[in-house]
């Protein structure tokens, strides 16, 4: 049975003391077979999936296949653009605050076509 999430602050601070202050780590905690864990030690499933696999597919969301295919096509077209073209759409060059991304296009070295 999987551990549940602990809510009382005293449990959380006791566990933090065991893990951090006493240096036992999360592995030491897991070996004790706890029945509850503080939320801070539980990684959300979506975050784990993206770190482990890099992507995941959501189903039954109501978005049509046509829209999904258009998004995939636009994504492929964008990432096939030369670096200079992509840089025009970077967060630094966007007038919008809604642009997200972590790639540093100034220092990233793109492979030449055919050298991938």
Automatic annotation (TrEMBL):
<keyword id="KW-0479">Metal-binding</keyword>
<keyword id="KW-0408">Iron</keyword>
<dbReference type="GO" id="GO:0051213">
    <property type="term" value="F:dioxygenase activity"/>
</dbReference>
<keyword id="KW-0223">Dioxygenase</keyword>
<keyword id="KW-0560">Oxidoreductase</keyword>
<feature type="domain" description="Non-haem dioxygenase N-terminal">
    <location>
        <begin position="51"/>
        <end position="105"/>
    </location>
</feature>
<protein>
    <submittedName>
        <fullName>Feruloyl coa ortho-hydroxylase 1</fullName>
    </submittedName>
</protein>
<dbReference type="InterPro" id="IPR027443">
    <property type="entry name" value="IPNS-like_sf"/>
</dbReference>
<dbReference type="GO" id="GO:0046872">
    <property type="term" value="F:metal ion binding"/>
</dbReference>
<feature type="region of interest" description="Disordered">
    <location>
        <begin position="87"/>
        <end position="116"/>
    </location>
</feature>
<dbReference type="InterPro" id="IPR026992">
    <property type="entry name" value="DIOX_N"/>
</dbReference>
<dbReference type="Pfam" id="PF14226">
    <property type="entry name" value="DIOX_N"/>
</dbReference>
């Amino acid at each position: 049975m999987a551990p549940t999430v602990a809510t009382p602050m005293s449990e959380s601070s006791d566990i933090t003391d065991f893990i951090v202050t006493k240096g036992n780590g999360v592995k030491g905690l897991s070996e004790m077979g706890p029945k509850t864990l503080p939320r801070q030690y539980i990684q959300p499933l979506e975050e784990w999936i993206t770190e482990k696999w890099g992507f995941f597919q959501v189903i039954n969301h109501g978005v049509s296949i046509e829209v999904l295919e258009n998004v995939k096509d636009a994504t492929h077209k964008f990432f096939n653009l030369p670096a200079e073209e992509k840089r025009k759409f970077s967060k630094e060059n966007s007038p919008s605050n809604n642009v997200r991304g972590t790639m540093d296009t100034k220092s990233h070295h793109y492979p030449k076509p055919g050298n991938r």
